[in-house]
Amino acid sequence: xxxxxxxxxxxxxxxxxxxxxxxxxxxxxxxxxxxxxxxxxxxxxxxxxxxxxxxxxxxxxxxxxxxxxxxxxxxxxxxxxxxxxxxxxxxxxxxxxxxxxxxxxxxxxxxxxxxxxxxxxxxxxxxxxxxxxxxxxxxxxxxxxxxxxxxxxxxxxxxxxxxxxxxxxxxxxxxxxxxxxxxxxxxxxxxxxxxxxxxxxxxxxxxxxxxxxxxxxxxxxxxxxxxxxxxxxxxxxxxxxxxxxxxxxxxxxxxxxxxxxxxxxxxxxxx
DNA sequence: AGAAATACCCGTACGC
DNA sequence: TGCGTACGGGTATTTC
Length: 271
What we know:
By secondary structure, the chain is of the alpha+beta class. Helices cover 27% and strands 22% of the residues.
């Protein structure tokens, strides 16, 4: 579940305790987290490298190292924290990187979906991602052009990381509500004004998530307070905050999808 | 080629 | 109470 705002929150939490630290040991209890490398290859290659920067691209956390880049994707249930090496770890902690100062970067993941990458160039992993929705270079006209080039349903298209990086189920539903667009609307049918509304809504939903340090939901997800500000996500059967109609939950492309049937129409209302 | 469906996971919530 | 099972969610892989 960690989406862009939750990953951004991790970047802010982890930057200070990680940047400048040198990795002097690893413990890997679930090798399938590793991308391509064996535990031995991973341990030998990362040993002695220093974290020079920490940043984010889409939902990937990227630790720039002396020689390589360490990328971590939290997927559904992953979480990261830095704690003293002699302290008790969170349950489901499968991967640890020990720093020279005695602290550990701990990766816990109840569902074991998360992935760890160690590569020479981060672009090997994040190179195929779509634009960053919060970047200054990403504008409404560009979104409109991209939407028209596809003609897929909005919901699965916005979830496609090669189309736009960082959205997951929560913020996609929230943004479509803010924009007043039906999740099954065909992307090529949007006017420039509608694309602009979607562009604005995406940025508003994501910035709200970041401002509240992400969302905390579903027992596996440690986050901030954004769940107190959901407009439609997990609000099926409750009144729409804008018009009072009952929020509906449907399945679109195998994903639970929440929307207001009155505010987000598939076809234009006629009178 | 591109889009849709499936596999990977497992704690929880639910039905019987 | 206890057992069995469906569910969710992001993305790589498989299928269409």
